[in-house]
């Protein structure tokens, strides 16, 4: 009886150790990706051969930030282990079209190699983006310097702005964490007021984003086809209020 009991206890101990090891051994794809793309949905390759072993209670994560200005899109992405958070998938459109578009995606999962997304086809739809950014011919557009670059823009051509944009944006994003430490310069047309390209979101998975705007974005007046100036709604209301006060 004593021998059988000892064998049973030994078996339970071994089973518990194996279970503990299986909990601790979480393997995740690991990689860091930073690039400027013309068509991220078809050209960006998010695969990696590197593997990271995580501690117990961790998650596998894959996180992504995309910023489009003009014809170029900046892609900053990371895969690996993360030790805080809950299992979830998050997709945020921080600044929608028309004009500059900013999108982020984060996935936390708890199975080995579950962070295995290979491309961006489901996350980035250029046809919808182009359709939303198309400007009707009801007015003569204003122009903004337009570029997106890792580091600093070498050139920023002045491009016509789509309808429903109201001002020129010029700012820099500092992205750190998840193996990334990069600056991103962004210029272009937008309808966003102030330094809010990220719409108040500053964490994307393990990445932290700091936005700095050295120049204040000011509303730009448009001209209609007959040459008359058409002010943005907020400016027009302000001038109307001023006229009423002066009467």
TrEMBL record:
The gene is TEX101. It comes from Acinonyx jubatus. One of its GO terms (cellular component) is plasma membrane raft. Residues 1-21 form the signal peptide. Its main location: membrane. CDD domains: TFP_LU_ECD_TEX101_rpt1 (cd23622), TFP_LU_ECD_TEX101_rpt2 (cd23634). The keyword Signal applies. Keywords: Cell membrane, Glycoprotein, Membrane, Signal. InterPro entries: Fert-Immune_med_protein, LY6_UPA_recep-like. This is Testis-expressed protein 101 isoform X1. It is found in: Cell membrane. PANTHER family: CD177 ANTIGEN (PTHR16529), TESTIS-EXPRESSED PROTEIN 101 (PTHR16529:SF3). Residues 47-116, 144-218 form the UPAR/Ly6 domain. GO terms for biological process: cell-cell adhesion via plasma-membrane adhesion molecules; cell-cell junction maintenance; leukocyte cell-cell adhesion; positive regulation of neutrophil degranulation; regulation of integrin-mediated signaling pathway. It comes from the Eukaryota. The keyword Signal applies.
